[in-house]
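A common beginner's mistake is to predict each chain separately and then try to dock the pieces by hand. The better habit, illustrated here, is to supply every component at once so that their relative placement is modeled jointly.
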Amino acid sequence: MQDMELLHDLVQESREHLQNIEPDLLELEQNGESVSDELINRVFRAVHSIKGGFGFFGIEKVIQLAHSMENILSRIRDHELNVTKDLTDALLKGIDKLQVLMDDIENTDSIDIGPELETLTPFRQQTVSKSSKTNSDGIQKPEGSIIAGHPYLNPEQMEKALNSGQFIYNITLESIKDIEERDLTPQKIIENWEKIGRILDITVNVDDIEQLSGSSNKNLTFSIVFASVLEPDLISTGCEIPDNQIELFNKKVLPKSDNFKISDNHNKERKSSKLNETEKSPVHSESHSIDESLRVRVSLLNNLMNLAGELVLSRNQLVQLFNKKLSDLFQTDPHLSDFNRTIEQSITSASESVKLNPSAEANTLLSELYKIKQSFKNCFSFPMQEISGINASLQSIDTVTSLLQENIMQTRLQPVSVVFQKFPRVVRDLAHKLGKQINLEMSGQDVELDKSIIELLSDPLTHLVRNSADHGIELPQQRSKAGKNPTGKLKLSASQQGGKVIIKVSDDGKGLDSEKIIEHAVSKGVISDKSAASMSIHEIQMLIMAPGFSTAEKISDVSGRGVGMDVVRANIERLGGSIDIESDPGNGTAITLTLPLTLAIIPSLIISTEGQNFAIPQVGVEELVRIRSFEVTSKIERIQNAEVMRLRGKLLPLVRLSELLELQPTFVHPKTGERMDDRRARWSDRRGPDKKDHKLADNRRKGKENRRENVSNAVMVIVLKSGQYLYGLIVDHVLDNEEIVVKPLPEFLKSTQCYSGATIMGDGKVAMILDPGGIAQKADLRFSDLENESITENQNDLQNDYHEILLFDTGTQERFGLDLDSLVRIETAESKEVELVGNREFLKRDKVTFPLIHIHDYLPVNKPSDKSDIFYVLIPRNERKIGVAVNQVFDVVHTEYKLQTNEIHGTGILGSMIINDRLTIILDMPALLGAANGKAGVN
Amino acid sequence: MTKKGTNSSSIKTTGAKKTADTKTKKIKISGSLVGNRVNVLESELLEKLKSIKPEKEIIFDLTKVDYIDSRGISLCIGMYKECLKKRFEFSIESSSNVYRILNQINLTRVFPIKEAP
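With all components supplied together, the output reads:
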């Protein structure tokens, strides 16, 4: 089991080596005859490490292939071979096959490495023929202590071992120190060593023992000639014998002294070889950096990430809990409610006693009971936040949790170079294949992205690069004709902008041909002739990513592979990113990918429908549109039996989330606050203003406010992006913007299309994360039909986006705005008109008493320090009369409704707008009333 | 003379036995040739060798020895060296287990070692 873990670690490490070798080989090829020592040594070391590492496990195919490559690399290093294209091809093929072996390391026996060895052989033969001469010279008449002590050593065996990439060592064993004291026997040692190499000869120094007396206590020396692929710095560990007892036989096989400066962490951690004084020193010079990085399992990081996510959720819950009032606790705690009930019962019986016997004592008793009740309630009427010291602790937990999460997130970040590094090879091979000259420039490889994004980015990016090389950059003669440099330029760049990473693939090729795109798109039915005529150049260019644009006819073994640009776009969007094309015909194309840094925590819009909360990733949200209650029938129309909405002259298909998800329609009972099943039909199905029964129905409602005009019946539409198209999602309420921790979707929900994950909200409830693309797919939206319709529509509909906004403040620096449509009227009042019942305020007007609420009690806004004597009361459209107390009303402005939802958000706040050069918080009256209703029972 | 060994199998050393050929003396050991047991055997063997006249051929019979460690190997070499001094011809007959290790460390190059059938 442990061996398997070690093997997998080695595979991972070797993969990294292979990734590094490829660009180095390409650079070697580019440099031609001027081989850089540093570069060739780096490649040599990497191949050598792979060979050595797998030597431990005796994985022959890897050893054989790596040895062949190492052999050639050593010839290059010794300037006996020039790096030609054919040689680079052979080495790259070897690298590819090593990669294949790594991918299936447990079944390497079934992988054929014959073709790769054959390709390498011509280069190797030159090496072998020359080196075998050297070897035979060295081995036939061996010199040095090894051979002197081993007269029976078989030179053929040695040569065979050396030619198969093994090192030959002479190892001295001391019977007492190395065998007895370690509770071993010679037999056991031989068995152990045979696992990692081959014993070529053993001699026992019989002269250590002179006589029988005392012989068994004498130290006996064994001299063992041992052949192994383990490199010099590993042999000591492998044989468990100190370095100073090991001697390397043929120094020509040993890497040059600078090769011992092993650059990767793996080898730094291993003990240095002390085989030769001249070779050992460089190892120690870099050993101080050993502990700077550590290999950690991804599963462990994922666990940490999950735990950090849970901690964030717990923190959110804690914050929410402390924001509640103790009175909430009072309602839920059975002991407190029992106590409350007892008081109520005592009051009732006392009242009855007073009625029967209205004595002064009974009255006093009753009033005392009332006082107890009030004091009891007062005890619990302050928020927990006011408990001394709790705020500071809470803030500290908040900060530490955020930092912890941020740091753990960073552990998952990887540089984009992980993906980029394969492109020099891809472009080189393509250029050779297509007969083109392409110069690849890469920048920003240090920019970091989450591991999961990096992994998923590889395929789409490869497709884009292949496309540029195949279809973008022209043949050298065509480029020359066009007055361009015959060598085309392909640029791959990455940069970070805020929380996003921008990756750009650009070329200086022929660019996109708009006419051909239109022709193709029309022939494939992607767009109609009519809509083609009104499309901008950019829209035409974006068509290459439309579903159905790519066809099987286009498949080539270069860029085709059956994957169209629509799949690339879909993949990028699945990552929460977006893709854009800019093309200048004749001068090139640039494709820009915008990606989030991480997929684990995403900014989301929290919405609710039929009492259920959902999260929509902000990246998919284009804008929020609130259709006022009396505009519902005019703005939401039906085309071909589907609902659509007109937005700035364009028709957007509408999807009702509750219907799509088949949620049972519900409503909140105005008196009980209970959520109940609703059997009413939807708004747009009801009478329009032009319908005959309109007045009739209104008469039936005589004496009551028309519910259709009630502010709470406005329709909230989230405009979502699905590819290049937009559609509207009808939801009940927009609640908040929140950074959510994404939890993977359980297996049984994966087929539902509509969800991309799940999250846990601050209140501990699960909310599903909606997938805008999946929703469009499930709702079977047909955008092309609408394009035709929208052309015929009157486009001059801009006035619909202007709203009358009432501007006011609450006695603080904050300025608020409210859609005038949500109010019935505005009144002034004096503080003396306000009556207090418990902690609730009431205002008496025209013999009607109605509750008065303050915005700061329910929404996350500042609380005024003083109360003014005269104030304004906003009366919203609501079934029950209620007043919202504000300090001052400034103005009513007719302004374009450009709501910003990112900066300022929260329950009851729609967003912010700049009105008259001032930041204005736009309130959501239904949500405010809902909060007041829920928290304080205002109704 | 019988002694109990340190491991589970009984170890029995026998004195030099006369074979059909009076010039050849066989010294037979059984059990395992390991650890401290070797020290005990060492002095017993010295005693045996003292009583053997020169120009004899000594066969160190390890056919009943199932296991040998580095001390046992040292003992074999010590026996060989002692025999050399006393001008005895020395050889070993051994079980296949013992032969394997003595052959692996190439003691066969130093003195004759025969694997018992």
